[in-house]
Amino acid sequence: MNDIALQKKQLRQQLSAIRNSLLEQLRLQQSEEACKHAAELIHMNRIRSVLVYVPFRSEVDTWPLIHWCWQHQVKVLVPRCDVATRAMILYPLYNKDQLRSGAYGIMEPDDQQLQPSDDIPEAVLVPGLAFNNKGQRLGYGGGYYDRLYERLKDQTVWIGMAHEQQFVDDIPVDSYDIVLNFVVSNKGIGTFSIE
Ligand SMILES: Nc1nc2c(c(=O)[nH]1)N(C=O)[C@@H](CNc1ccc(C(=O)N[C@@H](CCC(=O)O)C(=O)O)cc1)CN2
Ligand SMILES: Nc1ncnc2c1ncn2[C@@H]1O[C@H](COP(=O)(O)OP(=O)(O)OP(=O)(O)O)[C@@H](O)[C@H]1O
Q: Which reaction(s) does its UniProt entry say it catalyses (predicted)?
């Protein structure tokens, strides 16, 4: 394992422990606040479609934002993992019943009920373990969002979703890692690298 890979692994362990230690009530309250800020950002930028992750483990809970999007005619897309190629396939989601348990135990679009979409979302909400104020981010190591980044890069707005406890100064990065345009947390909206 190279140096950066090792550093990523250590930071993952450290930050999963921090995120998992947040009490449920605090996590939900912070998620509500982060979703409110994300909705402001979507509204201000007149974004009409968003790729939203379905939360698992102790991630920022995105359900309040999904409901907000449905109420405000913002199209919601959710990803399904193709584990063999580590690609994500995007599906429009209209209600909760269109999800079923999928790869890694994450709720995914049920392909018996839904058709994949070729739509390019105008924004992508990115989950993660650690974020910093340069727009860098550390995920679980599957490279799923990095591959999507390679595919969509400048065609969409990249928004990290964080609990305030997930901010760190330095994140080890490789050349293929996402650079986020915004990181939204319960504390508000952080902006980076906007051309
Ligand atoms: N809600 C949500 N959906 C998502 C992601 C995410 O981070 N959050 N992903 C973002 O990419 C993808 C799933 N990626 C994942 C990658 C690895 C593991 C996982 O369980 N990894 C093991 C460690 C494996 C190892 O170190 O070899 C673990 O954490 O125990 C889970 C999800 C796609 N969907
Ligand atoms: N664009 C890409 N094309 C092919 N492989 C890639 C690409 N981006 C990343 N990878 C591979 O994916 C693996 C995981 O990368 P990394 O550790 O940065 O994941 P991560 O960003 O934490 O995970 P995720 O995006 O799933 O949350 C690495 O082995 C890397 O080589």
A: (6S)-5-formyl-5,6,7,8-tetrahydrofolate + ATP = (6R)-5,10-methenyltetrahydrofolate + ADP + phosphate
Residue 190 pLDDT > 60 = yes
Fold of 3-191: Rossmann fold (3.40.50)
Task: Convert the pLDDT of each residue in 106-140 to its tens digit.
Answer: 999 999 999 999 999 999 999 999 999 999 999 99
Task: State the DSSP code for 83.
Answer: T
Q: What is the pTM of this model?
A: 0.96
**ipTM of the complex in this document:** 0.92
Residue with tokens 């090792």: 6
Please give the angle made by the CA atoms of 85, 69 and 165, to the nearest 5 degrees. 70
List the chain domain ranges: 3-191
Distance 185 CA to ligand 2 centre (A): 24
Q: Any idea which ligand is nearest the CA of 107?
A: 1
**Of 128, 134, 127, which is closest to residue 192 (Cα–Cα)?**
134
Taking the centre of ligand 2 as the mean of its atom positions, its distance from the CA of residue 44, in whole angstroms, is: 31
Length of the chain counted residue by residue? 195
- How many percent of the chain have pLDDT more than 70? 98
103 CA to centre of ligand 1 in angstroms: 9
